[in-house]
Amino acid sequence: MSRRILIILGQPSSNSLCAALARTYADAARQSGAEVRLLELGKMAFDPILHNGYAHIQPLEPDLLDAQASITWAQHLVWVYPIWWGGLPALLKGFLDRIFLPGFAFKYRPNSALWDRLLTGRSAELLVTMDSPPWYYRWVQRQPGHRQMKQAILEFSGIRPVRVHSFGPVIKSSEATRAEWLQRASALGYRAGTR
After folding, report:
1. What is the extent of the structural domain holding 77?
2. Which residue ranges does the record assign to the Flavodoxin-like fold domain (predicted)?
């Protein structure tokens, strides 16, 4: 049976390094025999603002319902996005706010501070670009975006293991360096499809 992989492109532009990494990963995963779906948030129609928090139900747009169905379908989730101002792009954060809801991603237990992780049984990879050198983001800035995505969102919902792959610094990167990054994404995609 082939592995089911969902790739979520969290960079709004479909003409970006992130988009190239996502497509390269997808192509390699398909070549290895995986079944692959690609969601491009910049092409989806939805309100990224959770207007009332969890106080009132905000109906999900068709693209968000399809996204939830794809997450349910997937065995492995690949999130491809840039680090902007140390964290997630607003569109990606809004997407997560809207679909990682109680009853879908997690469920609090009655009269308890504990919760059930509703997305267990899935693994994830983060392919993250940044203008900072990855060592600087890790040791000086302490990786706030990586920690938020890995621990506070995905692992909180039961998705594990979560592997993080950083690509940077993008600013002033050479064509040769970008080609190496694309090769790395291809190798990761092929490996993911054979697991």
Report:
1. 4-193
2. 4-186
Tell me how far CA of residue 3 lies from CA of 6, 24, 47, in angstroms: 10, 17, 31
Q: Which CATH number do you get for residue 141? A: 3.40.50.360
Alpha-carbon distance values, 169 to 17, 22, 34, 181 (Å)? 12, 18, 30, 11
Residue 89 main-chain phi, psi, to 5 deg: -60, 150
For 21-61, the pLDDT digits (tens) are: 999 999 999 999 999 999 999 999 999 999 999 888 899 99
Q: 17-31: b or e for each residue (b if 16 or more CB lie within 10 Å)?
A: bbbbbbbbbbebbbe
Estimate the crossing angle of helix 175-193 against helix 17-31, to 10 degrees.
Answer: 40
Place of tokens 């390699």: 28
Indicate the number of domains in the chain. 1
Number of C-beta neighbours around residue 153 at 10 A: 20
